[in-house]
Amino acid sequence: MALGLLVGTLIFLGLEGIVTLGVVFTGTSGKNALKHTLATTTVVCLWLIWAIVYMAQMHPLIRPVLAA
Amino acid sequence: MELFRSEEMQLMQLMVPAESAHDTIAALGEVGLLQFKDLNPDKSAFQRPHANEVKRCDEMARKLRFFSDQVEKSGLLFGTRIAGAQDYDLAQLEAKLDELERELLEINSNSERLQRSHSELVELQLVLEKAGAFFDDAQHRASAATFTRDAAPDASSAIDAPLLPGETSAEPKSVRLGFVAGVIQQEKLTPFERLLFRTTRGNMFLKYAPVGAVTDPTTGEKQEKAVFVVFFAGERARTKILKICEAFGANRYPFPEDPTRQRQMNAEVTARLRELHTTIEAGERHREGVLQTIGLNLETWSVLVKREKAIYHTLNKLSVDVTRKVLVAEAWCPVSGKPRVAEALRSAAAQSSASVGTIFQPLVTYEMPPTYFRTNKYTSCFQEIVDAYGIARYREVNPAVFTIVTFPFLFAVMFGDMGHGLLMLMAALYLVLNEKKLGKQTLDEMTDMAFGGRYCILFMALFSIYTGAIYNEAFSMPATIFGSSKWGCATNPALTDRVVMHFNETACPSAFNQGLVMRGKEPYPFGVDPVWHSTRTELQFLNSVKMKASIILGVTQMNAGIVLSLFNQRYFRDKLSILCEFVPQMIFLNCLFGYLAILIIAKWVSGSVADLYHIMIYMFLNPGNVDCNGTCPENQMYPGQGAVQVLFLLAALIAVPCMLLPKPLILRKRHFERLHEVGHYGRVSPHDEDEESTATLRMAAAHHEEEVEFDFGEIAVHQMIHTIEFVLGAVSNTASYLRLWALSLAHSQLSAVFYDRILLSAIQANSWPAIFIGFYVFACCTLGVLMGMESLSAFLHALRLHWVEFQNKFYHGDGYKFAPFSYKLIDKEEL
Predict the structure, then answer these.
(1) Closest CA to B720 of B800, B660, B664
(2) Is a pLDDT exceeding 50 seen at residue B707?
(3) Integer-rounded Cα radius of gyration of chain A
(4) Above 70 in pLDDT, residue B487?
(5) Neighbours of B788 (CB within 10 A)
């Protein structure tokens, strides 16, 4: 039913994976906890606001009416 | 995880041999990991052992301030220390500073004296020149008058011609004319003349000539001045005039009548002036040389003095052993830093060749250790945001970790606009890329604040660009980055172009009354559909989305806050608080507002037309009756909704007494049990194998117990306040998150107004000057109102949401900051 939402969420999951790999490859192992936390929190925030706006437009009750 | 909890601290005891105390403390300042406790808190500053040295350092600091003043005034540069410059210890430096100060003061007073006589001579020379010119003039005119009279003896036209010929040829001998010459300020000249005229009843003659700006000998300032000569008759007039001159601050100078004497004097003055000039120049060179050496060393010296003063301050905190051979210090030290401190102590002992090294050992204490976070340049500004509210309690969860992301994010929710985000990004990048250069300069207060928070601004800008893309606004204009609109004409779904519909009203008449329809099943893939911009229903739609978004974001962040309180309780092994605070709090918040958030999402995803206000209100007013007895069937979103809502309501209601009652009661019971146990073991303890150690332990425990006296009333009241705060807060904090909606609305409306009313109407005027002015006003409004005021207000609201709504769920913030004795910090202080 909500294919777009699922695909988008998967894309953000992919982003999370990329960010995690980025932290792993740039940081020193064993000292990356803070970076991982920050990266994950960022991706969650980005996903959340995207998902909210996406879902709000899935079954709109208000239609755009052009101003004359 | 670093930064998640503050560093583990330990109270350490140091026993420093008295003879190497100074060097040891200096070595510890280099390491900068110890916060010394004041062991003589009852002694005033004057009673302390090193009060005298501190006073000496203060005196030296005063001298250094005087030097830096002088160097600054003379416009010399503060040099950095040249290699091979002499190293001083305190006593030598004191002597050196003393000597330099005396020398400088002497040079100053000398040069001042010389300057004064120089400007006096300059004035005298001016008087000689100008007054001499008056006399020459008068003589010329007199001789000319004689000459004309001789040429035309009966010229009666001249009124001032003497009646009797030959009268002017001879000077009247009975009245001897006196005169006074001098220099006076130009602006005082008129009142001066008037007063002279009045006091002498007009029996005087003032002649003056302006000479421009001249240095005043007494004040040393440049002033507009004039040379004057007053002629008068009689000795009494002379005394009066002298008094008036004095009153007006006019400088009188001797002026010989005889022209030859005048010339001689002039020559003398010129010679003396030349002489003085060379003297002054030599003095100036000498002074400059002295200041140059001072300027080169000033930095080093002031660092030395600051450090010495700090060392003596620290020494004052140590307690002196009875034998006076050993100083005892107590200091907080991060556990991870202990090896470094021990190493520094060892090398200091070796260097000072003291017979005994410093003893460095942990102490048992029940005192709360200080809070110490190791921050770097990226995290420090966020830590400061949290610290501004309150320093974290020792080892409690640090909200700064999450603030690093959520603060810029919530800011961006309110400030979302790609254009404005881009402008902010440019400013932040400027600060970040030039941070090495800017870090060295002293900036004014506003820039310094922005510079300190440059990484915060950078993150805020990046998130603003993202949320701007979500809101689909760049300077309030929508973009079609992610494809064209998903809405089309109801009668002709292929028609999506708003411009065509606008200008060709026959193309899609329904767009103006019923509105457009969605073309497919899926909405716009990323962000708000561009179609909404400047439609009649835009506000209606955006308000609904943003308001619901605020509630969802708020509930999420508050839940995160409560989960962090679980981290705290687990860390401090506080199972009771988990059961009596964390669990009921989660239940209460999520049964009411978590449920609301889920209903919002369910409504969006399912396309239900239920009225959520109605559902929430009637969940309290009329539990179990979801569809208003059949009059509002749309509110029934899923089967069994009534039962679920009753369950949630009951759970929330039961959660309140669970937060309130059990914890204080259980604490009380535990307290009585412990009292009982202590009494019980007290009788057994003499038969323990290790008597001494148990006795000391018990003493320590008793001591601890004394401090934390159990007071049931206080705990119950505290719990009650906590509960009421949480229950009321759950409602008011959720409402408080609506500021995200309000601020975001205000931002987008303001930027739309500036764009439509100023820029677009200027462009419509279709003349270049109008467009230019319109763009100028638009740019000013965007920068001043949106980038300046709006960003500040969004910043403050994001700050509040973190301080109050987020942190009050878990953050105690009653710790105190670790303030180590460190040269790095001391060197930054003002002298």
Answers:
(1) B660
(2) no
(3) 17
(4) yes
(5) 11
Among the partner-chain residues A34, A52, A62, the one whose CB lies closest to the CB of B552 is A52
Exposed, middle or buried, B435 (CB in 10 Å: 0-12/13-18/19+)?
middle
β-pairing verdict for B35-36 and B9-17: unpaired
| B 403-442: CB under 8 A from A | 404-406, 409, 413
Phi then psi dihedrals of residue B640, to 5 deg: 80, 15
Confidence at B74, pLDDT banded by 50, 70, 90? confident
> Using the beta-carbon criterion (under 8 Å), do A65 and B502 form an inter-chain contact?
no
Q: Is B589 on the interface with A (CB under 8 A)?
A: no
As a dihedral over the C-alpha atoms of residue B99, residue B101, residue B107, residue B112, rounded to 10 degrees, the angle is -160
CA distance A66 to chain B (A): 5
B200: CB partners within 8 A, 6+ apart: B232, B237, B240, B241
pLDDT tier at B171 (50, 70, 90 boundaries)?
very low
Q: Which residues, 6 or more positions from B535, have their beta carbon under 8 angstroms from its beta carbon? A: A64, A65, A66, A67, B515
Within 10 Å of residue B708's Cβ, how many Cβ atoms? 8
Residue B211 φ/ψ, nearest 5 degrees:
-120, 10
CB-count exposure of residue B743 (10 Å: 0-12, 13-18, 19+): buried
Residue B274 contacts residue B229 (beta carbons within 8 Å): no
- With residue B447 as reference, give the H or E element that holds it: helix B445-452
Helix axes B51-73, B259-317, angle to 10 degrees: 140
B752-781 confidence digits (pLDDT tens): 999 999 998 898 888 899 999 999 999 999
**Backbone dihedral region for residue B819 (phi beyond 0: left; psi -120 to 50: alpha; all else: beta):** beta
What's the gap between Cα B170 and its chain centre?
82
Separation CA B621–CA B628 (nearest Å):
11
Confidence of residue B694 (pLDDT cuts 50, 70, 90): very low
In whole angstroms, give the CA distance from residue B125 to residue B132: 10
Tell me the per-residue pLDDT of B553-607, one tens digit each, with 9 for 90 and over: 999 999 999 999 999 999 999 999 999 999 999 999 999 999 999 999 999 999 8
Cα nearest neighbour of A65 on chain B: B515
Those residues whose C-beta lies under 8 Å from the C-beta of residue B563, and which sit 6 or more positions away, are none
Residue B504, burial from CB neighbour count under 10 angstroms (0-12, 13-18, 19+) = exposed
User: Chain A to chain B, count of Cβ pairs less than 8 Å apart?
Assistant: 130
Q: What is the DSSP letter of B818?
A: -
Q: What is the 3-state secondary structure (H, E, C) of B542-553?
A: HHHHHHHHHHHH
- Give yes or no for residue B299 having a pLDDT over 80: yes
Tokens of B696: 């000391």
Radius of gyration of chain B (CA): 44
Output the CA–CA distances (angstroms, integers) from residue B631 to B69, B608, B617, in the order listed: 85, 16, 16
* Helix (DSSP H) and strand (DSSP E) numbers for chain B: 28, 11
B410 within 8 A of B553, measured Cβ to Cβ: yes
Chain-centroid distance of CA B561 in Å reads 29
H helices within B200-258, ranges in order?
235-247
B394-419 confidence digits (pLDDT tens):
999 999 999 999 999 999 999 999 99
Q: What is the C-alpha separation between B585 and B725, in angstroms, rounded?
A: 11
- Which of B817, B800, B653, B642 lies closest to B723, judged by CA? B653
Alpha helices, DSSP H only, in B737-820? 739-753, 761-765, 768-781, 791-800
Dihedral of alpha carbons B535, B539, B543, B549, sign: positive
**Three-state secondary-structure class, residue B620:** helix
**CA of A36 to nearest chain B CA: how many angstroms apart?**
10
CB atoms within 10 A of CB A39: 19
Express as a percent the part of chain B with pLDDT over 90. 47
- Name the band, by pLDDT with cuts 50, 70 and 90, for residue B162: low
